[in-house]
Specification:
The protein is mostly helical and about 100 residues long. It has a domain at about 40-95. About 85% of the residues lie in helices and about 0% in strands. α2 (about 30-55) packs antiparallel against α3.
Length: about 100
């Protein structure tokens, strides 16, 4: 029973900061600046989580930079996500072999 109470309190603790700004600011969401700012927050948070993982994933900084640059280049060319992942992984594997 104690575990259920702890999980419930943790859910409330994470829910309050997320829902409070929405309830308090109905008019702010009409601003184009705020809307564009909120649009890019998930991308920025995802980048902050992925970038350190890229640098530590391949066993060497040189390999990580080459793999990261490969994925950035392919994403700028509007390739599909699976193609980007496969090509970046293949590039790092080939660098490890040679």
């Amino acid at each position: 029973m104690r575990d259920v109470v702890i999980i419930f309190l943790m859910a409330i603790a994470t829910w309050i900061p997320k829902i409070t700004p929405i309830m308090l600011s109905k008019d702010i969401s009409n601003s184009n600046f705020i809307r564009s700012f909120l649009y890019y927050i998930p991308y920025a948070a995802l980048s902050c989580m992925i970038f350190p993982a890229i640098l530590n994933s391949s066993g060497g900084l040189y390999y990580a930079i080459i793999g990261g640059c490969t994925s950035i280049l392919l994403s700028l060319l509007n390739m599909d996500l699976i193609i980007i992942i496969l090509c970046s992984t293949l590039c790092v594997i080939l660098l490890h072999l040679f």
